[in-house]
Structures are given as structure tokens and as C-alpha cells.
Amino acid sequence: MTAGDDPRGPLAGAPDISLDAVLPPGEPAVFETFLADPGGAAGALEVSMGRIRREQVRRLVGSKTFLVGSVIVLWWVVCAIFGTLFVPYSATTPDILSTNLAPSAAHWFGTNNVGEDVFSRVIVGARDILEIAPLATLLGTVLGTTIGLAQGYLRGAVDMIVGRIVDAALALPIVIVAFIFVVAIGPSTLTLIVVIGFVFALIIARTVRTAVLQERELDYLAAARLRDESVPHVMFVEILPNVLGPILVEFTVRLGYAIFTIATLSFLGFGLQLPTPDWGADVATNYGYLSAGYWWETLFPALAIASLVIAINLIGDSIEAVLIQ
Amino acid sequence: MILATSAGLPGTIEAPSTTLEVSHLDVSYRVRGNERPALRDVSFRIGRQESFGLVGESGCGKSTTALAITRYLPRNGSLSGGSITVNGQDIAALDKRSLRQFRARVVSMVYQEPGRALNPSIRVGRQVAEVYEIAGMKKSEALARAEEMLRVVQIADRGRVLGSYPHQLSGGMLQRVMVAMALATEPSLLILDEPTTALDATVEAEVLDLVSSLRQQFQTSVLFISHNLAVIAKMCDRVGVMYAGELVEQGPAREIFENPRHPYTVGLVRCVPRGGQSKDHGRLDAIPGFLPEPGEVQVGCVFAKRCALADQRCTEETPPTYEVSATRTSRCHYHEQAPELPRATPEDVMPRRADGGEEPVIRLRGVSKTFHVRGEQVRAVVGVDLDLKVGETLGIVGESGCGKTTLARVLLGLSVPDEGSVIELDGSPLAPECTSRSRKQLQAMQIIFQNPDSALNRRHNVRHIVTRALKKLAGLSGESCENRLLEVIRSVRMEERHLALRPYQLSGGLKQRVAIARAFAGAPRVLVCDEPTSALDVSVQAAILNLLADLQSRERVSYVFISHDLGVVRYLSDSIAVLYLGRVMEHGPAGTVFAGPHHPYTESLFSAVPSLDGTRRERIRLKGEIPSSAHSPAGCVFHTRCPRRLENGLCDSSEPPFVEVEPHHMMRCHIPLEELRRLQATQSAPVPEPSP
What we know:
The complex is a heterodimer of chains A (325) and B (692).
Chain A: H1 28-31, H2 41-62, H3 64-86, H4 118-124, H5 126-154, H6 156-171, H7 174-185, H8 189-216, H9 219-225, H10 231-239, H11 244-267, H12 279-286, H13 296-324
Helix pairs in contact in A: 2-13, 3-5, 3-13, 4-13, 5-6, 5-8, 5-11, 6-8, 7-8, 8-11, 11-12, 11-13, 12-13
Chain B: E1 18-31, E2 34-47, E3 51-55, H1 62-70, E4 77-86, E5 89-90, H2 96-106, E6 107-110, H3 114-117, H4 124-134, H5 139-152, H6 158-162, H7 171-183, E7 189-193, H8 201-218, E8 221-226, H9 229-235, E9 238-243, E10 246-252, H10 253-258, H11 263-271, H12 312-316, E11 322-323, E12 329-330, E13 362-373, E14 376-388, E15 393-397, H13 404-412, E16 422-425, E17 428-429, H14 439-444, E18 445-448, H15 452-455, H16 462-474, H17 478-491, H18 508-521, E19 526-530, H19 538-555, E20 558-562, H20 566-572, E21 575-580, E22 583-589, H21 590-595, H22 600-608, H23 650-653, E23 659-662, E24 665-667, H24 673-683
Parallel strand pairs in B: 3-8, 3-9, 6-7, 7-8, 15-20, 15-21, 18-19, 19-20
Antiparallel strand pairs in B: 1-2, 1-4, 4-5, 9-10, 10-12, 11-12, 13-14, 13-16, 16-17, 21-22, 22-24, 23-24
Helix pairs in contact in B: 4-5, 4-7, 5-7, 7-8, 8-22, 16-17, 16-18, 17-18, 18-19
């Protein structure tokens, strides 16, 4: 071994720092290593990268935003899986004798106009939405990533054509686009997944494309070209692992939107079909009774939607904050 | 006097003879609850109007020292011992208000990257004037002062500069502006932190000259921080060498570099290729081992682990600051023996196999590359004719924007050259684009990029990176691939344990070794090295250069070696091409090109580079800035800046042909060779060059 080959890198905690760099508050210890002088910035950088990865996980788990979001999402996941086992009443059995009851000890969230227990319906209603939304988002992410990688790496005509289609799709509200397709194909769980997945794919493709464009300038891709690597190899083996960060953030953000979209479609009557308990549909069936003073029939399913969307966004925000810093 | 210096600042009643006094300074950074020492017992003083240099490799604590002096340590850094006094005032005792005053009036700083130190959305004039406004001047007056200050830093076109945004100005111009801003308040202490590292050689020389002359004019003390020994040697009266947070040696600059008395300084000076050192005569020395982790060395000498002179005493007893002479100190128990430090690497050279009169492996004829940018034609490379022989190195030198990297990319097929360009490999023409080249042709030519962080996929480990190249280029698989992998990894002096690591777990030097291993995996015939050591510390650079030289003599690979560092190019090259605005201005055997007579551009380039030997040469000053490739001057492209331009107007109107002025020595100049020889012999002797 000869000079300067320290695999641990030199002086990680105490490198030279250039004055003009702005140190992010809170965690300067990690980032100062980025600011080493050019004589050997690389040497100081490498330790920090390893540290940063551990640091990222540590900070994610330590962040309150992430914690609150996870607890709420976890709660709804438990409801979705085991809800039917612990609800006090059957969610789908009408009880003519106890319609429109206000919240009480017997019916925590009251009952609706056919006498179903609102609490039980809210709990069980988590199931379908938590099944469709992640599947739709996953489909959208996989598809969108592939499109985005192709767009960003190949550029040219592919990029142009797909780019314009994305523009067109984004010009319309997602709900309207999804709405048109659901009407045309006929509402079903599969339709919802495919339609939302496709629309999201276009949006996710745009994010991935931007990330790929930055990678495109790096020399490791020139090295790959000089090795005569195939296009799929370059896209999926060389580039993809380097753009997973933005894709992860995009996935969580889209998941929130997917829930919102599904609930909206259900509200409009093109989502899941009754009697399956569903938050959006419940809001739709019951909001007419608001004027009669039966607020609980609408409020609780609406709150459920809101809490899930917010929780997922909280998780998305905290992941993004950690990755971007 | 433009401004009342340090008016109203407490503690500066009369001018003391010492501007800065740092004594027994300890600084530590708090990292996850642990105190990590960054500076340990650093003491030095800078007298009035003195210029003091801090030199050392990355991570040694140079910039931390500057931060501590300006009290700009990051919030996890703290001054845990010792004191810093500026003009007799203890800076730790300053309250918020006087600290602002102190930073505004007493100490100024010039940063490495002027482009980042200025606000990109505010015109330069406003930013310079702001310095005066803070001092309490009216807007109009401040602007007038700003213009006056730009005159002081020798900016001719002041109106344009004042009205420009930073991105519209060149790096050298911006650094002048920064110097103007720093000196505007006539500070007692000017701190320059790697001020010319980001600049080209000729521009660097101008900025350094400017700083030297202004230092006298403004009677300012200077703290000059750099990793470049030669720059420090040129700029500083006294110098301190830092290693692992300690000031290991201190003394007059010339003495330190000519007769170092600390083993680290000895090693550092030996790492730098200079004085016409070449791969044919000997290998460079390197410093073995690694920089210790902060706080790792509690007792004993910080350098002991890497020092060939170290014995038990060095690891048990922390060396005090020995007085070597009245003006010099060294933190080494054996400072008397330091100059006899044994070499860390053998000097022997593997004998080169004799070549003779072979056909070139690469032939370039009329290679041009034009970029079309917003309707303008940018001619990055123009009509380049070059040959590369088997087992030889062609060095390509030139300043940024001269087309070095474009030429490399065109050669590799990463960039498509203009119609009519001919690139031949072993006499058969190559397709312009690498995707249309055969597997065999791709295998024959590979590249080592400048920045290993960009060149290595950060998500792949070393095994994957090198194996992939073996599979695709050498066509190996299975056991033979595995065997060859180990062979390649060992040939770049890495070990099996490195295979599982990803680039971010490796140091800069190791990363570049992985890149070299990948490039050598397919047993290439030609290797393009695009500034392969410019991101590395000098001791690491020495090791990489030795490695490249060894691999070349063993594998008979030809290199196209691109660098802005003339010493490095000289060390590795057999022939040298000098590029200016995409044209080859001069081409010939390395010895001939360095010995001269030179093309006027080559001459000014060589004379701009400070040398460590202390041979001060008369510098050829270049006028103006490098023209843009989009608007190359008519006639000889260099005539706008040429110090030897002919008066008869020939240079302005017609482009000189590229002709052989003496055997194997090509040049593009109207001035006859003998005339150049006469001019250069009488006016200056730019490079003292021993004949090879």
C-alpha cells in the first residue's frame, strides 16, 4: 500500500471547511465534510456518505412528523386487516329500529339512516381503500419509473412524444381523467387500480425523468457507453439505483393522492359499490342529511379520509426532508 | 487612506508589531456527542505587513484555522484552548457588536470560488459599493469609491464590470473583484483561502501578482492558505506546514522548502514532480500510510505511523516545538535527521522495452468539433493532427476551455466530430460514434476520468464495477473472470477486502485506483487520462502517477494524458501538445517542448506556473482574457494576447500554418524559430530544464 489510501478516509470530523459554505443548522457535523478543499475533497466526502446513510435512517425514525404519520397509517392498516374482528356491530347490517342515532356510549359515532353503526363502517371502510390505493400507486410507480427512465436516458422523439402526452394528461384534473375512464370501462376494483395507476404513471414519469437528466451528465454513463452496455442495462442497473430517492418520495406523495382520488370517485358514485363500506361513498350517501342535523354520518368518514391522507403526507414530507438535506 | 482603519475598535490604540498572534490554539468539533479535536496546540504569529502561508493536504486543519480567526466556526466547533489576538485584541472577548466591527474593518477574507462568494442576482457594482455603505458612506459616494477600488485591482473595463452580474464575468475577473472588496476597508489582516485553486495558470499568476503588489500598497498582513506548495513558496515570507491539526513545521518559506526539517514536509516536497523529473529516470516518492482519525493520536507524534524515522520515542513522547534555528521550529524529535528520510517507494524504474519507428497506434487528422449553441458556432476543436505511438504518452496541456476534454471525448467516440475528421486506430478508421465501434475497438481505447465520484456508479461495489468491465470488454466469465479480477485489483495495489466496498466507502486515491482498474480491465491499447490526479492530494497524486508509469512500462499501453499541471505532464509524457482555443499551437517531444524555443503561448504558460525550486523567472504577462471559442480572433488565434505579436500585422490577418520547425517539433507561429530562440534567450529563461 502506498500513500493516502485510507479506506476510512482522513479526518472525517475535522476537515477543512470553506467559509462561504452555508452550514445547515442542526447537523453541521455531517455536512462539514462535504466542504473539504479541492485538494482532496473526495477523501473527506466518502466517510460522510456512509455516515449520512445511517444518519438519514436515524433522523427519519427520530422525526416527530414521521412518527405521527406512521402511527396513524398503522392504525388504519390494523383496521383494514382486523377491523371486522373487533367492530362492535356488523358494518353492513341495517337496523330499522335505530336509525339516525346521535353518538352515544352504545354507538360511538352514531348510526346512519338505515341504522348501520357509523363507527363500525369507518373502521371496516379502511379495507378497500388501503388495498386499492397502494396497488394503484405501485402500478403507477413501476410504470412511471420505466417511462421516466426511457424519457430521460433516450431523450429525442421518445421524450418529446411522452412529454406531450404527460402535458395533456396533466392539463385535466386527475379525478376527471380517472372519471372518464371509469365510466367508459365500468367501475370495478381492477378498473380503479389500472386507471389511477396509468394516470399517476405519467406524473411520476416526469419526476423520474428530471432525476435521470441529472444522472445523465455523470461519467459513469459515459463509461457504460464505452463498454457497449445495452439500453435496458444502463437504465435499470446503472441509473435506477441512483434515482430511488426521488421515486420513494413520489410514491408516498402519490399514495396520498390515490386515497383522495378513490374517495372522490366513490363520492361521485364511480368507486366501490355499496354495500361495501367505503368512506367516500358514505359521505356521498349521508351528506344530504346534514341539513337535518345528522352531522355524524358525514363527519366521521370524512375525518377518516382526511386523517389517512394527512398521515401519508406527513410520512412523505419527512422522507423528503431527510433525503433532500 | 480610504477609510479610517479599525476606527473606534477597542484595543487598537497604536499599531503593534504583531497583527495576528495565535497561541496554543485548540479547536474541536462536536460530532454526535463526542469532541473531535481538529486543531491541537497551533501557534504562529504574523507580523505587520508580513505574509504567512499555511500549507497542508486536505483535512489538515488549514481552513479551520481561518474560521477560528474570523470566529466563523460552525456551531458544533469550539475553541477549546489557547487564544487568538488580532492587533492585540483577544477575539474571544469580542461581543456581538464589536465582532461585527472586527469582521467589517479589521479582517477580510477571499474565498476559493469567487463565483459562489458573490450574490448572483446583484450587480457587481452594488456589491462592491455595499462595503462602503456599511462603513457609512452615501450611495453615490460609495459607488465612486467602488470604481476607484476596481482601478486599484487593475480592472481596465470598470464600467462594464460594475454593471455586470457575477455570471457574466470570468473567474479571474471575479477574483479581482473579491480582492477589491476585501481590501476596500484596508483591513489589518487579509485571509486568502485557496484563492487561485479554481483558476487557470495564467490567470492565477495575474491574481497572485496583484495580491503581492497590493499587499505592499495597503500594508496589509496576509494569511495565505493553499495546498499548492509552489504558490505558497511564491507568495509567502514565512510558512507553516500543517498535518492532522498540528503545525508541524514553521519558518521562512524558502528555507522550509529547500531544507525541510520535518519528515512530513520532506515527504510532501518529494511528492511533487518538478525540475523536469520524468518517468524514464525515476519514480516519485510517496508518503506511506493514512492520515490518522481525529483524536486517534493522543500521545506521541501525529506523523509517527507514516514516518520512516519514527522509533519508540516518537509514539510515547509528544514532540515539543523544537527550535531548529532562530527563525524555524519543527515538531520532530529527530529534526536534524529529517532531510535523510529514507524513500518510501523505490526509485527504480522498470526498463522500458525498446521501441523503434513503429506506426502510430492512434492517428488524428483534421479533427474538429463544432458545437451549435443558440445559433452560434462554438469551435471547440479545430483541425487537430496528432499521432500517438505504442507505449508512449502524449501530454495535452492548455487552459480551461481550450478543448482538451472535447478532444478526448471525440477520440473516444463520446462526442461526434465534424465531417471530415479522421481518427485511425492501427491504421484503420474509427466510426465517429462509440456505439458504432466494434467491441474490439471499444476494448482498445478506454478512459480514466477526472472525478472518480462521477465516473464510478455510487450504488455499485468495486467487484461489480470491475467485473462488469471484464465481462463486457475482455469477454471473460466464471473463474477466469474472477482470477483476472484479483489480478487487476492487485495490479492497482488494492486488496481483496476492497471488493465489497462501494465508492463512498473509499478515499479519493482508492476511488481513482478503482477507475484505473476498470480502465485496464479490458487490456486497452490506448488510455485517455483526463486530469486523473487533479482532484487528489499531492501525496496521493504521486502514488497514482507512479502506478500509471509502472503499468505503462509493463503493459505497453499508450496514454493520452490531459492535465493543466505542467510538472505532472512533464513527468509522464513522451510528447506534448499545447492547445489554445481548440488548436494545437505546439507539438513535439516533451524534452524539446520544455527546453524551447517555445511558441509564445507555451512560453507564457510555462512562465505563469510558480515553481517550488524558487527559481524566480520573469513572467510573461498576457493581456486580456481568453477569447470565447464562439468568436475566435481572426488571424492567429493567440494574437490578441500574444506578447511577441509582429508589428507588421501579419499575426492579425493570417493564421500561421502548423509546420515542423525542427525535427519532430511542430509549431503554429509566424515568428521563425531562430527569432524565437533569440528573443527567449535574451529576455528570460522560462524553464530551467535538464536535458533528458
